[in-house]
UniProtKB/TrEMBL annotation:
Belongs to the FGGY kinase family. It comes from the Bacteria. This is Carbohydrate kinase. The keyword Nucleotide-binding applies. Residues 53-222 form the Carbohydrate kinase FGGY N-terminal domain. Residues 448-471 are annotated as: Disordered. Residues 233-424 form the Carbohydrate kinase FGGY C-terminal domain. Transmembrane segments: none annotated. Keywords: ATP-binding, Carbohydrate metabolism, Kinase, Nucleotide-binding, Rhamnose metabolism, Transferase, Xylose metabolism. InterPro entries: ATPase_NBD, FGGY_C, FGGY_Carb_Kinase, FGGY_N, Rhamnulokinase.
Length: 471
């Protein structure tokens, strides 16, 4: 993506899109990180000329480097089964209560902490001299400069959100060497310049600085929320739904831990207080399953039929870890309905409606819980990311939350990436609130008001209570 930033304007353009196909080999699911890097190089070539570059990606995964800076094998995918049982093993060394008090991070079985526990004793980890999170690895290949960007580091379950630094207590308890991580850097810090070989490969004319952006894609997405005031909740939608509030300090109570909220770090000293929800992955996996069975579905038709399906008939817990792995999602949804006493959907439209109703309910519960736990009230919900294209999901979220939903931008991560670069280079000025005002005036947005057309407030309340008592 390229961004053009000027006085009161931010424009975004897609210049190159490339596939991201994980590969299973030797029983382990890997990222094809070399193919991703080639896609980055191709994208830089297509984007020429550029004044600055920044890299954001998903969280928790990493590559290991040897003493010469060479990559020790393809990074393992967070959906791989190697972390099964690791949380229990780590809890023998540090209790969940202690771990949350130090890091404030939601329990997720694939957090970097558990991946490193799973890797203990392997030849790769024994040979490793350094660990780079995925965006830092790509940035290193572009510049030759190593660093650990803070927003992504905060997802490792090794960072204390109060000090905004690594926690020696957690690392010692979990037997993890913090020396594996290069020094921390903040969003907006310089991260080097494109290497001569990269300039030659891409046809760019140097020097081209690389800026450390908010390299966790959700951190970039939240930075691009076009809110008018601070009284907002956000939902970053896509494969995952990340729903919560932007705070100035973490919430580390045990009640917050039991509610499975996370305290990840954002730009300008903020905390992203949120709950991870399985997201549109549920629908994506249904579509993949039906296609593999010879029953491909047209998404536009499916969503139209889902909108006409009875509301709130079948709902599931969209945070259930049983939905994490790839595979037959309709079967798992049917099993979940049976376990909780809900009717099993009868056709693809029913499954789609089940997924979207369930996501809207999960959004409602997350927004309600975040306000209660953080003692903070909101007046509106902002939906950003790919889910803004799903009008039914946006409307259901407004109905479920009983709050207006502002949808947009869809490419929030790319916009957040661009505005952090622009601010670092002086093209944009001010704090994140000033940046958001520019975005609000520059972007097309759509607002959904609670309508009652897809279930009355009482029906949504009953469905939410059903989930609370069954999960």
């Amino acid at each position: 993506m390229t961004g053009h930033v000027g006085p009161g304007t931010v424009e975004l353009r897609e210049v190159h899109r490339f596939p991201n196909r994980p590969v299973r080999t030797g029983g382990t699911l890997h990222w094809d990180v070399l193919a991703l890097y080639q896609g980055v190089l191709d994208g830089l070539r297509a984007a020429s000329p550029v004044d600055s570059a920044g890299v954001d990606s998903w969280a928790v995964d990493y590559g290991l480097l040897d003493a010469h800076g060479a990559l020790l094998g393809n990074p393992v995918h967070y959906r791989d089964a190697r972390t099964d049982g690791m949380a229990a093993r780590v809890s023998e060394r540090i209790t969940p209560e202690e771990l949350y008090a130090h890091t404030g991070l939601q329990h997720l079985p694939f957090n970097t902490l558990y991946q490193l526990a799973a890797a203990r004793g392997t030849p790769q980890l024994a040979a490793a001299q350094q660990l780079l999170l995925i965006p830092d690895l790509l940035s290193y290949w572009l510049t030759g400069v190593r660093g650990t960007e803070l927003t992504n580091a905060s997802t490792t379950q090794l960072v204390d959100p109060r000090t905004r630094d690594f926690s020696p207590a957690v690392a010692e308890a979990a037997d993890i060497e913090l020396s594996l991580f290069p020094p921390l850097r903040q969003p907006g810090d310089p991260a080097g310049e494109l290497l001569p070989e990269v300039l030659e490969e891409t046809g760019l004319t140097g020097p081209v600085p690389v800026t450390a952006v908010a390299s966790h894609d959700t951190a970039s997405a939240v930075a691009a929320v076009p809110a008018a005031t601070g009284r907002f909740a956000y939902i970053a939608t896509g494969t995952w739904s990340l729903a919560g509030l932007e705070l100035t300090s973490p919430v580390l109570s045990d009640e917050s831990r039991q509610a499975n909220f996370t305290n990840e770090l954002g730009v300008d000293g903020t905390v992203r207080y949120l709950r991870n929800i399985m997201g549109l992955w549920l629908l994506q996996e249904c579509l993949r399953t039906w296609e593999s069975q010879g029953r491909p579905q047209d998404l536009e038709t499916l969503l139209r039929d889902a909108a006409a399906a009875p509301p709130l008939r079948s709902v599931i817990d969209a945070g259930d870890p049983r939905f994490l792995a790839p595979g037959d999602m309709p079967r798992r949804i049917a099993d979940a309905c049976r376990r909780t006493g809900r009717p099993v959907p009868e056709d693809p439209a029913g499954y789609a409606r089940c997924v979207l109703d369930s996501l809207a309910l999960a959004h409602r519960l997350a927004v309600e819980d975040a306000q209660r736990l953080a003692a903070r009230e909101v007046d509106a919900v902002h939906v950003v990311g790919g889910g803004v294209h799903n009008a039914l999901l946006c409307q259901l979220t407004a109905d479920a939350c009983r709050l207006p939903v502002t949808a947009g931008p869809a490419e929030a991560s790319a916009l957040g990436n661009v505005v952090v670069q622009a601010r670092a280079h002086g093209t944009l000025r001010g704090d994140i609130g000033d940046v958001r005002r520019v975005l609000r005036g520059a972007l097309p947005l759509r607002t959904y008001e609670p309508s009652g057309d897809h279930g009355s407030p009482q029906e949504w309340a009953r469905a939410a209570q059903h989930l609370r008592t069954r999960t």
